[in-house]
Write the structure tokens for this entry.
Amino acid sequence: MSMRFTQVRQSDLNLLVVLVVLAGERSVSRAAKRLGRSQPAVSRGLQRLRDMFHDELLVRTPRGYEPTPRAERVLSELEVMLPRLEQLLGDSSFDASRATALFRVAATDYSSNVVCPVLARRILPAAPNLSFEWIATHEGTFEALDRGRLDMVLGAEDEQVPERFEKEKIFSESFACVVWRGSRRRRGLSLAEYLRAQHVTVSVLGGKQTVPERQLARAGHERRAALHVPSFATAMRSVIGTELVATVPRRIAEIGARDPELSIVRPPSVFQSFDYLMIWHPRLSTDPAHAWLRGVIRSIGVELTPPDRRASLDQAAGSRRVRKRRAPQR
């Protein structure tokens, strides 16, 4: 090879990891915690990075460190290069029974109640050194995914998901209405009754419960939200002793209905099923550990899908495969 590596030989490439983490955390103390180093060591690393690139790279502001234009260009390149180097230098496989890793997943309390119990029961016993940090979704969720502070986001099919991210369906879900057992609405709701009712809604990503709002809007309707709350569990508890209606995903409605004060009622036909997704940054697509994580979430989705629905999905997939095989013979 006739390539010259003068700059590479004179540089400490470990500092590039420090730059990426500092840019993501915007704080020396948080970056030090994430890197497992002392704050003075990270501060010295930042100074060495500045000397290496002859640029300030990260400038302190009231909101934390902000990257300079030079740093943004460097970070853009590192976003592609570092995962490839990690894969090149490391093992191409991921052994969950031996590996030590932390996965950060952002999600609503819906997935916390539905996905986490399966994860704890079926996955964690076979992976003693793995940890999962479940984080509530918020307005900065996708920015955190961009900056590498999250490994995955779990959420409903939604127009708010930026197109730059990869996404995959985990399972289908439908809506149910939850009311107080003493409510006069406990036998089901026509569309007219639903629109006359007062509703308790859940804030998702700092906004409205967008899926039901969008489905209503498509039919030319809008519901009246009398109460906004941060979680589905709170929404269901809030209807007790009232005529309020909470429209929530069916799986969490079935969990909430274990409370003798609550009843599940059929929602108006305007509400259709929707997909529940896992969302991740494309730079992680080839990472063995992340591929394992996606496989785990995918398998949990299969377990959460009723057997009859699994059979119909398998049959549909088989039909597609048959059609693909036969098509050239026509």
User: Anything to note?
Assistant: The chain has three domains: 6-89, 101-161+279-305, 175-272. The first strand starts at residue 58 and ends at 61. Residues 57 and 71 are 5 Å apart (CA to CA).
